[in-house]
């Protein structure tokens, strides 16, 4: 579970206050206007921004004072963050060992997860030789191998067309959620919220007041959320 309790996060003159909880095996969509604080939230959970006050816990353990490399989270950006000079296989293998000194068993694990995301025949290609959807699948494969209990998705599907977006959402449901990973996903797409999110956290003017069940919230949004959704 991801738990954010009375967190205050500052970036320059901007302040975000946030409280929410995401159970293991569920997706919380973080939505709201541009500049409202969505990415600020993910950067604080990942450890790139400090907490002014409050608590962030993953799996019941406070992580607010840990450096980014020591946090039990994986962060996936829109640009997939693959190394262009490495093969797909090597990029994914970084999820197991940053040194890439993989044992034969670990190499088989990499091959297995590439097959799971539909890239089994493309392990020796470079990222530039892949489509946008294939690059995102490779990034998700690396996230699977990192085996962290929390996954932070910063608009990872924004650059994909409708068909590839649907394919990636299905892959997340099929390959990531059954592992019991709690997911915070920033999105500007109401379709993403309706299709895959269990919970919704609405970020408005620097505030997030809880994560709420998606279906009833979308059926009866408050004025601010209704105004935001009406502009999508």
Question: In words, what does this structure look like?
Answer:
The chain is of the alpha/beta class. The mean pLDDT is 88. The protein starts with a strand and ends with a helix. The longest helix has 15 residues, at 132-146. It is 34% helix and 26% strand. The chain has helices at 38-46, 88-93, 104-116, 132-146, 162-176, 190-196, 214-219, 223-230; strands spanning 2-11, 14-22, 27-31, 51-58, 61-62, 73-77, 150-154, 182-186, 199-204, 207-209, 212-213. The chain has two domains: 2-72 and 148-230, P-loop containing nucleotide triphosphate hydrolases (Rossmann fold, 3-Layer(aba) Sandwich), CATH 3.40.50.300; 83-147. The protein is globular and about 50 Å long. Strands 1, 2, 3, 4, 5, 6, 7, 8, 9, 10 and 11 form an eleven-stranded mixed β-sheet that branches.
Index terms:
34% helix, Rossmann fold, single chain, alpha/beta, 8 helices, 11-stranded mixed β-sheet, 2 domains, 232 residues
Highest-level CATH class of the largest domain: Alpha Beta
* Low-pLDDT regions: none
Shape descriptor reads globular
CATH fold naming of the largest domain: Rossmann fold
The helix/strand class is alpha/beta
Number of domains: 2
Q: Based on the structure given, which CATH architecture of the largest domain is correct?
A: 3-Layer(aba) Sandwich
State the order of secondary-structure elements, H for helix, E for strand.
EEEHEEEHHHEHEHEEEHH
The helicity comes to 25-40%
Total strand segments: 11
Biggest beta sheet attributes: 11 strands, mixed
Q: What integer value in Å does the Rg equal?
A: 18 Å
């Amino acid at each position: 579970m991801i738990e954010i309790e009375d967190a205050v996060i500052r970036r320059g003159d901007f302040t975000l206050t946030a409280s929410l909880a995401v159970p293991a095996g569920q997706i919380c969509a973080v939505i709201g206007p541009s500049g409202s604080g969505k990415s600020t939230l993910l950067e604080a959970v990942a450890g790139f921004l400090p907490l002014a006050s409050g608590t962030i816990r993953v799996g019941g353990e406070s992580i607010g004072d840990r450096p980014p490399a020591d946090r039990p989270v994986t962060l996936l950006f829109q640009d997939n963050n693959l190394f262009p000079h490495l093969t797909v296989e090597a990029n994914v293998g970084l999820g197991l060992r940053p040194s890439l000194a993989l044992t034969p068993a670990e190499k088989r694990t990499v091959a297995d997860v590439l097959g799971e995301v539909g890239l089994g025949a493309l392990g020796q290609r470079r990222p530039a030789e892949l489509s946008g959807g294939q690059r995102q699948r490779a990034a998700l494969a690396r996230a699977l191998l990192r085996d962290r209990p929390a996954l932070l998705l910063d608009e990872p599907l924004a650059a994909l067309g409708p068909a590839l977006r649907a394919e990636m959402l299905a892959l997340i449901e099929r390959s990531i959620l059954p592992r019991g990973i709690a997911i915070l996903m920033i999105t500007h797409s109401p379709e993403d919220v309706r299709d895959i999110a269990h919970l919704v956290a609405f970020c408005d003017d620097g505030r997030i007041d809880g994560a709420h069940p998606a279906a009833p919230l979308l059926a009866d949004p408050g004025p601010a959320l209704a105004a935001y959704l009406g502009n999508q």
